[in-house]
Amino acid sequence: MNQDERFLREAIRLAREGMNSGQGGPFGAVVVKDGEIIGSGPNRVTSTNDPTAHAEVVAIRDACEHLGTFQLEACTLYASCEPCPMCLGAIYWARPSRVVYAARHADAAEAGFDDSFIYEEIVKPHEHRRIPMQQMLADEAKTVFKEWIVKGSKIPY
Ligand SMILES: [Zn+2]
User: Is the pTM value of this prediction over 0.70?
Assistant: First the structure.
């Protein structure tokens, strides 16, 4: 069994374990660096009342805490299912070098986890989105960006 299959099966095992132990939905993820699991997580949405506690986000937070950094350089994220748009965003911010997933998003949709509406929302004009988005006070908010640009000590990311 190759490494990818081994780690992906661990993500699937976490998905089942998390579901059966009442932690949340049937999703699991692990983050691997140098052949070692450095972060993992099942979905914990319902047990922690955290709508962002998808397995990938839980695993990314765990891995970053373990590494003491906010970047997952040279890491691979294994997910039991294709990441949703939120997790995809988190993955791009965390910057692992690779993602390997098992079930496809259509498979999750069949189980009642359909995230395709989010992809549809992203490309819609703001005024046509299900959740209205209103823009205001840009000039006031931009002053913080100007302060950031000239700030002496900062950690860019
Ligand atoms: Zn997700």
Answer: yes
